Amino acid sequence: MSKIDQTRLQLMDRYWKAANYLTVGQIYLQSNPLLKEPLRPEHIKPRLLGHWGTSPGLSFIYIHLNRLIQDHNVDMIYLAGPGHGGPALLANVYLEGTYSEIYPRVTQDEAGMYHLFRQFSTPGGVPSHVSVPTPGSIHEGGELGYVLSHAFGAAFDNPNLIVTAVVGDGEAETGPLEGAWKSIRFLNPERDGAVLPILHLNGYKISGPTVWGRSSNEEVQSFLSGIGYEVFFVEGDDPMMMHQAFAETLETCYEKIRAYQEDARKNGFHGRPRWPAIVLRTPKGWTGPHEVDNVQIEGTFRAHQVPVSEVKTNAEHLAILENWLRSYHPEENFDERGHLVPELAALAPRGNRRMGANPHANGGKLLTNLVLPDFTQYGIDVKEPGTERHESTRQLGKFMRDIFVRNTQHENFRLFCPDETNSNRLGNVFEVENRCLVEPILPNDDHVSPNGRVMEVLSEHLCEGWLEGYLLTGRHGLFATYESFAMVADSMMIQHGKWLQESLKLPWRRPISSLNILLTSTCWRNDHNGFSHQGPGLIDTILSRKGEVSRIYLPPDANCLLSVADHCFRSRNYVNLIVIDKQPQLQWLTMEEAVEHCTRGLSTWQWASNDEKVEPDIVLACAGDIVTMETIAAAWWLRQHLPELKVRVVNVVDLMTLNPPNLHPHGLDEATFVEHFTEDKPVIFAFHGYQRAIHQIVHGRPNAERFHVRGFNEQGTTTTPFDMVVLNGVSRYHLAMLAMEFAPRVQKLTPPLRQECEDMLNKHESYVQANLQDMPEIQNWVWSNKA
């Protein structure tokens, strides 16, 4: 191909200098933004924070993408994996005008530049990394490893979008990033957009060399080409030669992307393309000071953060900083008033083609509501509570099957699951959808197609990252996984929750569909799995998030699950955690009762209680499907053996209702809390997760010490369902004994009954070891009002 016009490249180099100037200014300056007077110590910030090392490379790429967008009218967003290059991205969205439109105080003149510099990494300002306040960003840069998974999630079902994902060589060392390269095996050129990975190698992390930076081109080539990419290398440090080489390479990559897409869309999908990937090698801290105090800076780890320190107190360092800033010729690139000169301003795209203003990076602008079927049509016909067993999640699978059907026009819904869709009883979706894979399909494959929208890959990081990218660009989905292994990606959920929390403060950030997480194969059912599959800790993770964004639901049966799922699919800007087992379980509530129960968040189940609307002796509370069954069975046992004991049964489906209302929007006021739990009666609380969570939530409630919580305490391995609750002290017999222990009015009657419970536990232990299954009276137990 022909070379890019040299005059244009020279202008692009000046634009790059302007971006680099603004980047250094944000790190160092609190005044004198245009250097209209000699630099003095009082112009320097008292605390120097920020990251220079990766920033010039990020700006270099941004400017070249601007050229590509202008020449080809490309719909493109930019994801910065080296997230601490925040000042570079801020500089570029400022230069293109987006930043000033969103934040009018930061005008494109000297006064606005002053505010741009002062706000960076200062109290009340903006973070040093690419974050929620950065226009054009959908990728939180604080935790490394997710830029590629977010990028591919954004590209799925976005046929005209190209997502440029810059991967830093430090980030490239993380497990999630290394696993995400294989995402091209799920990208269909016929119906998806494209991802252009740019592996930016500058050789160093904070203080040590990077693995990829020290790898030869041949090794990098072998790795990426082995995954399926066509690899293009651009390397050097001479700016004009690099501009020419990178522009030509970018043009070639764009032509290949469009050729693959046009062929697939004209002739149909007929094989996975060898998508292009660019490897860009530049010095760390490129164009910064080469030496300080006779120690090399540029091209070393010392350029990572603040290359020149002590500039307020060291005159020589201050002079180095001033020479560095002036090397970018601000007087040539900005006019007297601080405006970017017209010939450079003309290099930025216009309107929504600016990467900072692209609506895909503010996904709520593009969000179309899901067309949801009536969830009540998928419910279980519960004639009597606790008499029939069904797989609750199977009903959810039928509901989602029809969500796919009703949204085929919008193509805005996907299910993400680590190879567990059938295992989790969601397999009805395969009546209308397939697993996605753009590899050869074999005759024995089960529902596999390059056009599928069920995304199965054995990486929780990848599933979660894909879904986050999909949501952040204005679509809907669900991440379903085994409970214990959701913890693999818990920090990703934390980061997404932080993103949502901060976005609520920004009116220009439009609400997006909630991150919906379904946990099944829970800690209480390990019929053929071991101790490794027992871990309800994600509840604790979500519980620690701010109430504005966090929701935890523990539906006890299918009808409650459907009601909760419908609510979650309609919600915006939340992290919704739904926990329910996939195994056959007793069904408790009619659909009408379930809807009312889920709307309230918790209810007193009068049919299971015998307090007859008087003050009970004891409250049996429960949250979680298995512990609900044990609680109801305990109430039943007490009714049969100790009818004098007045028992109230309270079931909690929305865990957040237990919070005081000042801590969570769903929190119950004190009067309603007392209405269910009384003011002072003992509460035996059977909980799905770790006991400490309930103690944390009810802290501050009336007489909180009366809550006696039992839950999972890291006991058990491959064993029977009932043995799991026995080992963890939350079986019906344990709960019944606790109720008798803490109800003083009937304690004289309880010694023989407590012994009977102990005898049943001993009988259970002998029986399961001899027969390898639970006792018939446990397996076949159902609720009955009869004695």
UniProtKB/TrEMBL annotation:
InterPro entries under this entry? Phosphoketolase, THDP-binding, Transketo_C/PFOR_II, Xul5P/Fru6P_PKetolase, Xul5P/Fru6P_PKetolase_C, Xul5P/Fru6P_PKetolase_CS, Xul5P/Fru6P_PKetolase_N, Xul5P/Fru6P_PKetolase_ThDP_BS
Taxonomic lineage: Bacteria, Bacillati, Chloroflexota, Ktedonobacteria, Ktedonobacterales
Any idea which GO molecular function terms this record carries? aldehyde-lyase activity
Q: For this chain's UniProt record, which GO biological process terms are given?
A: carbohydrate metabolic process
- Write down the Pfam families for this protein, in alphabetical order: XFP, XFP_C, XFP_N
Q: Which organism is it from?
A: Reticulibacter mediterranei
Keyword Lyase among UniProt keywords: yes
The UniProt record lists the EC number as 4.1.2.-
The UniProt family comment states:
Belongs to the XFP family.
Q: Report the protein name in the record.
A: Probable phosphoketolase
